[in-house]
Structure formats: structure tokens, C-alpha cells
Amino acid sequence: MQQLTSNVFIETRVKGCNFGFVTTSDGVVMIDSPHKPSDAMKLKAEIARHGRLRYIINTEPHGDHWTGNAFFDVPVIAHEGVRTRILNTDMPQHVARVASFGPEEPKLLENYAPNVPVMTFQHGMTLHVGDHTFQMIHMPGHTLYQAAILIKEEGVVFTSDNIFYKVQTFIQEANPDQWLEALEGLRRLDEDIFVPGHGAVCDKSYLDEQGEYILEWKAYVQKAIDQGMTKDEAIEKLTAMTERYPMDVGLEGQAPRVMRMNVANLYDYLTGSGMHRRG
Fold this sequence. Notes:
Layout: E1 2-3, E2 8-11, E3 19-24, E4 27-31, H1 37-48, E5 53-57, H2 63-66, E6 76-79, H3 80-87, H4 91-99, H5 105-108, E7 119-121, E8 124-129, E9 132-138, E10 147-151, E11 156-165, H6 176-187, E12 193-199, H7 207-226, H8 231-237, H9 255-271
Parallel strand pairs: 4-5, 5-6, 6-7, 11-12
Antiparallel strand pairs: 1-2, 2-3, 3-4, 8-9, 9-10, 10-11
Helix pairs in contact: 6-7, 7-9, 8-9
């Protein structure tokens, strides 16, 4: 793992989301968890070298951020929408997918049960552990239930998937306008060390590029709608963004699928249909 500051340790080079932990004077706080159980077990051993784990904070509802919670016997904190989504997950289907990630995973997933958030918030929450302050701010965008986690004493923000640094951006259920607002919210923070949901550590200088990419996607799909394309036609034909960025670690070859998901969601958003149905 990479030591980012004197007390913040992160992992950005494995399949799934970026995750990390913070050492405090009264134990360790983990932020998000590995997608692969084998990576969760490695993380568990690493944290044990630094102290007693006290809490896990999840930043969003997608499984690559919470699957590994189950391998840690501590309370989980997240937006209330994250708890609801986990509880409504088709768990046998989820476990079967994660089991396909490698030969070590099926055994570790036997009798799997998710470690669901037991402390939740709507707009924000502050957690004090030892000499550290963890401020959770609801910042919908990539999903409705995103949260940024500020570690005030370290000058670090875990931005979750509102930032994909130099890797392909997933817009499969996003509200692009809320996402742009979230980026402006990140810009207003005092902290300037950003641990994105995917990709390498960055700072506020990347916010413009991330925002411009979302705007470009929105305009790209809107043009297809204006030209009279149906949703199915747009999904089939809108492939120009495929090579813009590489896929994140472990997702090689999945760019065409991500393009289709992004187009489908933005088509619904711009036409007020599907999950974005108005009224």
C-alpha cells in the first residue's frame, strides 16, 4: 500500500475501487473495502500491523466499495441509501460474480453475508476517533448516494467515484448535473489531496478535466437524440469515447460495455425516462 501522509495509507492498484485506512491515537478507520475477498484478507493483515480497526466508512452503493466489509468485524457507516442498496442486492448473484474474480475467491466467499452499514446519514456526519476528524458530506453525482470523506488533520479527501482519475468514467446511473455540482463542492474544500474512487491520487487541478468529460458525454448523447436516434440506435452507434481513457485495473476489455451503459443512462436522463422519469 502507498503511504500518502503520516497517517493515511491507500491502495489504488488492485481490481475494484480505491480503498485505504487512517491511523489515529485510538485505532484505525478504514474507508471503503476491497472488491476481491483475497485483497480484503491482505488488507486485514496490513491493518493489524497498525492497530485495532474501529470503523469502516463506505462512500457509495456499488459492490466494489462494500464487498470486503464482510471480512472485518466492525461497525460500518454510510449514507442511508448505501444501506438500502446493499440490503436489496441479489446476494447470490453478487457472490457468484465476485467468485469469478480468481481461484482464491470462491473459498473465501463460502457463507458470505454482507457487513451492512449500521450507522447512516442523509446529508452529512462527523466522526471523531482519537486525534482525527472524519467529515462525511453527501455529494450525489456518480450515484445518488455518494459521499466525500474528509480527513481534516491530514488534508486528504476520499472523493469516491465522483472522480475517475485518467481512467474511463462510469456514468451508468449518474445524474450528470448533480455530478458537476459535486465537483464544484470538492473545489470549495480546503483540502487538496484527493483519493479518487478509481485511478491515481490527484488534486483540484483535475476537477476541470473530469467536469469537461461529463459535459462532453452529455452533449454527445444529446446530439444523437436531436438527430432522432432511438435509445437502441444510440447504444449501438455511440462508440467515439471508447478509447478516450484506459479502463481501470482489472477491467481491461470492458470499455465497450461501459460505453453502452453510459449511453443508455444518459439517453434516459436527457429524455426524462427510465430511472430518471420526471413527475
